[in-house]
Every structure is written in structure tokens, then in C-alpha cells.
Amino acid sequence: MKPIIRPLSTLLMGGTYLLSFFVSFPYSTLLVSLFALVVLISYFPYLPRTPKILISVLLVVGLLMDTSGNGVREFFGALQTNANLLAIFIFVPLLSIPIQQGQYLKYIEVIFAHSIKKTHHLYLFSTVAAGSIGAVMNVGTLPILYDLTDTSSFKPFDEVRLKALSRGFVMAFLWSPYFISMALVLSYFDVTWLQLFPIGLAVTAIMMGLGFLGERKNNLSIPKAVAVKNTVSLGTAKRKVFELAVILLTVTAAILFIESLSDLSVLTIIPLTAIVVSAVWSLFLGTPRELVANSQQYIHVKVPSMGNELSIFIIAGAFGTALLNNGADDWIRSLLEALNITHVLLLIPVLALLMTIPAWIGVHPIITAAILAITLSNSPLFADDHLYLSLGLLAGWILAILSSPFSGLNLLLAAISRKNSVYIAFKLNFKFALLIWIVCYLVISALYFIL
């Protein structure tokens, strides 16, 4: 498959979906499904073995549920089920272009160099950086931050860095509007981002505090000062990082403001805003030629690297819809009745198990989360519990991602640190992942009895 087919089909899939909100043209949903099918076909040869097996199984089983002509057409149409979530996944990374172009990460490096004297400082700064910058730049932030702290002073504390980066990053799943986890629950459940954001941010603050206190007990001094490779002053670095925070907060506020004034969903506004802000911000920082060069880099490098997640999420949406069309909501209702689970607080631990155990054997949480969200959002039994279900799914997603040796997060950290992903998942993070879920569950329970 020619390399251009992969980025082109990806951009056409997301672009056609967004364009359909402003320009009415026939068969727009079928076009999105067609481009999604091309994405699946074009990326498939380049996927690792496990995703290939998962996608093949879901495709075959989904088609076998209804082998009639109508069933095949419905399955094809369902390939665009998660188009709104995919648009976020495709276009939000554009914001990383001006962030890197403005050298904001260099200023973060200066703050690291001047401020970190103890290992618990290293943990705190790395956690906050991974959670804040990662909330916009996604997993691509982690190799950059790992390299920034890969100095002679910090190398002896590799475990501290890995724990901080992984834990800080996953906490953004609970509150970042730019993450596909948040987009999924907003898409299927009757909740708003403003409902979830303060709860997720509160849990994040609690967990960052607990992690910091835990590292402080084993505190060690960093033996020598970090060599700063530039002449930027600490004051300048702080101002630039503050500038970055203000810009990102302003963009988020603008998204919510636009949502209040228009009929568009926040899931549509986010990718559109990312496209516009990235272009304007990049032009403010550089020249049109630089913007074109960075855009080409995004198209030819960044977009092709999305194949694993794109393919899995496309097939997960189609498979989940096929399940629903064949009575999955009745199956789940019967299962819950057989287990005597009629209360949402009893259901949430079951959701965590359903997401985490498959993740341990290589099934991406995207698949189980999409299927559970599609079916539970249509269940009359939990019609009034969408807020708690959303939080429960997000908590289960974090538990699965942080504790699975096969998650993209742990595989990436294993690759850049040359450590075993099993070691990172179970030795470094399993207890903390379980603690995150317990705290989330306690918060959900408190909200249930208060609200």
C-alpha cells in the first residue's frame, strides 16, 4: 500500500465528518464509512501482531452476526460510528506543532534544571509536566519529557521518572477534553465536560498528592546540579511556561464558549478549534513556509503513527454497533440480572474487571469501553446514572492502561527506557493504579449519596 494512502484516507475520514456539519451533501456518512474502511485496509499490514488478531476477530465475528446483505451493509455503515472521537484523535495533535515550534519544552527543561534537588521534586515536576502537556500532546509528550530528564544527574533515578511520567499522563484521562477517553463518555452518555472536569481534576490533585507523599518517604538527594545547555533565565522560563498555560486554558474556555453559542457538540468543536488554533499560533510564531513544513511532517510522520489506535477504534465502534443490533443490551441486562447487579455502585467494579482483565492479555480498553458505553448508555436500568457510569468507565480505563503490559503507554515507556513492560506495569504501577481506582470509586460513591 502506497504510504500516502494511509494519511490521506485518515484525513479524508476526519475532514469529511467535520465538513458534513457545515456543507450538506448526499451520502456523507457513507463516505466517512468508506474512508474508514480504507484506513483499516491501508494500515492493517503495518500493525503489530496482536492488533491484527484483534481486528480480524472482531471483523469476522461482527460480520457473522448477520450475514445477510442488509447485515453487511449495516456493518459497513457502522464503521463511522466513532467518527466524532476519531476526529479528536486525528486533529488535536496539531496543537503540538506550535508547542514544539515555540520551544516551550525547552523552558520546562530550564525549570527542571533549576528547581529539582530531591527525588520527590523530580517526581512532582515530571508528573505535573506529563499530565499538563500530555493532556494536549497526548502520548507523544512522554519520549520528549524522558529525554529532557535523561541527564547524568537524573539517570540513577530512572524508576522515579518512569512512575512519574506514566502516572501523571494517565490522570489526564479523567479531565482532559482532548483525550479520546473523555470524548467517548461524552459521546455516549448524557453528561457534559463541565460535570466531569471538576471531579476528574479533584481526583488528579488527590492522587498527585498521594504519589508525592509516597516518594517523599523514600526521598534521596540528587548528587549534582543539572547542566543547563542554554542561557535562558529561570524567570524567562517561568514566564513562557505560564504563557503556555494561559494559551491552553484560553483555548479550552473558547471551546466551551462556542459550545454554549452554537448547536455543535463539544466533540465537533474540539478538532475544529485545534485546526484553527494550530494554524494561527504557528503563523504567529513563525512563517507560512514553516507552517507548511510542519504540516507536512504531521501528515507524513504523525498521522501514519496513529494506525494502531485508529484501526482498533474504528472496528470497535462497528463491532459494538453490531452487538447492539443483535441484542447486546438484552444480553448485558440478563447478565446483570443473573449476577443480581441492579445498582450502579455494584456495576462499576464489574466494569473495571471487564476492562482490565482483557487488557492484561492484549485487548485494548478502547474496545471494551466502546462496547460497554454503547450498550449501557441505551440501558433503561441505568438511565439516571450516566454521570457515575462515565466516571466508572474512566476509572476502569486508567486501571487497565496503567496495569497492562500491553498498553501503548507501558510499551512506549519500555521502549524508551529499555526496561520490561511487565516490570513497569506490575512492579512500578499496579498498586498505584489500584489506589487510583479505589479513590475514584470512593468519590463516585460519595457523589451518589450527596447528589
Short description:
The protein is mostly helical.
What's the topology here?
Elements: H1 5-19, H2 28-43, H3 49-64, H4 69-77, H5 83-91, H6 96-101, H7 104-115, H8 119-137, H9 141-148, H10 158-171, H11 180-188, H12 193-217, H13 234-261, H14 266-285, H15 288-302, H16 307-325, H17 328-338, H18 344-360, H19 365-376, H20 386-403, H21 408-417, H22 421-428, H23 430-450
Helix pairs in contact: 1-2, 1-5, 2-16, 3-16, 4-16, 5-11, 5-14, 7-13, 8-10, 8-12, 10-12, 11-19, 11-20, 12-23, 13-14, 16-19, 18-19, 18-20, 18-23, 19-20, 20-23, 21-22
Task: Give a description of the structure.
- With 451 residues, the protein is mostly helical.
- Helix content is 75%, strand content 0%.
- The protein has 23 helices and no strands.
- Helix 1 packs across helix 5 (83-91).
- The protein starts with a helix and ends with a helix.
- The mean pLDDT is 87.
Structural class: mainly alpha
* Average of pLDDT: 87
Write down the oligomeric state: single chain
What fraction of the residues are assigned to beta strands by DSSP? under 5%
Q: What separation lies between the terminal Cα atoms? A: 54 Å
**Share of helix among residues?**
over 70%
Which shape, going by the Cα principal axes? Answer: globular
Rg over C-alpha atoms, rounded to the nearest angstrom:
22 Å
Number of distinct beta strands = 0
H/E element order: HHHHHHHHHHHHHHHHHHHHHHH
Biggest β-sheet: count, sense, barrel?
none
The total count of helices amounts to 23
Low-confidence stretches: none
Keywords: Membrane, Transmembrane, Transmembrane helix
Protein name: Citrate transporter-like domain-containing protein
Transmembrane segments: 21-47, 53-72, 84-102, 122-148, 169-189, 195-214, 241-258, 264-285, 306-325, 331-354, 361-382, 394-416, 428-450
